[in-house]
Amino acid sequence: MVAARYEVAVVGLGAMGAATLYQLAKRGVTAVGIDRLAPPHDQGSSHGDTRITRRAVGEGDAYIPLVANSHRIWREIEGELGVSLFEQCGLLVMTSSETPTSHHGMADFTQNTIRLAKRYGIEHEVLDAKQIRHRFPQFSPVIDSAIGYFEPGGGYVRPERCIDAQLTLAKRYGAEIITNRTVTGLRSVNGAAVVSMDGGEIVADKVIVCAGMWSAELLGAPFDRLLKVCRQNLYWFKLAEPSIFPDPSPAFILSHGPTDQDICYGFPPLAGEGSMKIATEQFRVPTTPEELWRHVEPHECRTMFDTQVAGKISGVLPEAVKTSVCTYTLTPDFGFIIDRHPMIDNVVVVSACSGHGFKHSAGIGEALAQQHVDGTSQTDLSAFSLSRFSAESR
C-alpha cells in the first residue's frame, strides 16, 4: 500500500497545531493535521473556557509581535465565521507584595510588563493601590504599596472556540484532518518525513510537531531531556450575592509574594455562571501523560482558596462549583521551542510553550506558514531556537 503524500503534516491540533494547519491551508498548501483525540478536547493544554491575552507580555520582547498578530487574526476569523473568540475586557497585572514576584524567569513581572508597554507604545495605565480599590473593588485587599498595570486592549480568548474555528477554516481551505489516531514515530527517508501512526503511515515534505505534553516521547533526544510536564488545576469559585465585581471586570494576574507560588491569575465572571475562574501555576512536581491525575481533589480546592483567594480577592466564596485539569509542558527557561529537529530531517518542532502559549498561537501559526511558503517569516522566531540551550542540556 502506498502511503498518502502531503506537503506538510501537522502533528497535534491544539493551540499551535490548529493555527498552523489553518494558515497553511489558507495559503494553498496541501496539508494534513493529525490528533490522537478529536479537538477541541480537554485532555491536553488547550482548554478551560478562557485564556488570558495581553499585548505587553512580561516574559520578554520576542513575544510582543506574536500576540499582536494573534489579536488581528482572531478578529479576522470572527469576521469570517461570525463567532466570538476574543473578549477585550482589559487586563490588570498587580503586585500586592513588599517583595517583587519572580515569574517565568522574570525577577519583577509587573515592572517588566510596564517597561515593555512603554517601549512598544502599548496603551496602558499604571495604578496605585487607591486607584485599584476604587475601580475594581474585588481587589480591595491589596496592600497600600500595591502597583497595577491596566491594559485596556487585553482580555481573554476562548480556547475551544479558537481551535474549532481554525480547524473549520482549515477544512474549508482544503486541509485534511485525521482524528483519534496516535502518531507513534517519525523518520526521514529519501528527503521526506514519514509519519507512523496506529493504522498506517503518511509521507510529507515537512512535518510540524505541535504535540504538547506528548512531544518528549515522540521526539526523543534532546527533547526528552529538555521538556518537563506539570499538572495544573483550574478552579471556578462561587461568587457572593450580590456581586461586587463591576461590569466589565478585567482578566487579572495577581502577585502577592516573592516566589512563583505567590501568584494567581483569573477572569471576570462569565454571564450566567455566578463564579470566577482562577488558577495558579506549579512547576515543581513533574508528571507524564500516562500518570497525569485528571481529578481535582477537595483538599486542593481548600488549599487554593486559602492561599490564593482568601484575604486577596473579595466577593468570592470557598465553594468550587467546577474544576478542571490541564498541563504545561515546560522548557528550562520558560520560553518556547520553535526550531528544526536536530536529529530528524524535515521535522520542525513547536513545543513546548511553557504555559503561556495560547495568546501567541495564532501568530505562531501564521509565522510557520510564512516560513514554509515564502522561505522566511515576517516575525523573528530566532529567540525560540534550540541553540540557546547549552550542549549539556541538549
Question: What does it look like?
Answer:
The protein is of the alpha+beta class. The chain folds into 2 domains: 166 residues, FAD/NAD(P)-binding domain; 165 residues, D-Amino Acid Oxidase, subunit A, domain 2 (D-Amino Acid Oxidase, Chain A, domain 2, 2-Layer Sandwich), CATH 3.30.9. The chain contains 9 helices and 20 strands. Strands 5, 6, 7, 13, 14, 15, 16, 17 and 18 form a 9-stranded mixed beta sheet that branches. Strands 1, 2, 9, 10, 11, 12, 19 and 20 form an 8-stranded mixed beta sheet that branches. Strands 3-8-4 form a 3-stranded antiparallel beta sheet. A hairpin with a 2-residue loop joins strand 11 and strand 12. The model has no long low-confidence stretch (mean pLDDT 95).
The string of secondary-structure elements, in order, is EHEEHEEHEHEEHEEEEHHEEEEEHEEEH
Which shape, going by the Cα principal axes?
Answer: globular
What amount of the residues lies in strands?
25-35%
**Relative helix content:** 10-25%
Indicate the CATH architecture of the largest domain. 3-Layer(bba) Sandwich
At the fold tier of CATH, the topology name of the largest domain is FAD/NAD(P)-binding domain
State Rg.
21 Å
Note the gap between the termini: 38 Å
* SSE class: alpha+beta
Q: How many domains in all?
A: 2
Task: Give the arrangement of secondary structure elements.
Layout: E1 4-11, H1 15-26, E2 31-34, E3 51-53, H2 64-81, E4 86-87, E5 91-95, H3 109-119, E6 125-128, H4 129-135, E7 147-151, E8 155-157, H5 159-172, E9 176-178, E10 183-189, E11 192-197, E12 200-209, H6 215-219, H7 223-226, E13 228-239, E14 251-255, E15 263-266, E16 275-280, E17 286-287, H8 298-309, E18 316-330, E19 338-340, E20 347-350, H9 361-374
Parallel strand pairs: 1-2, 1-12, 2-9, 5-14, 12-20
Antiparallel strand pairs: 3-8, 4-8, 5-7, 6-7, 10-11, 11-12, 13-16, 13-17, 13-18, 14-15, 15-16, 19-20
Helix pairs in contact: 1-5, 1-9, 2-9
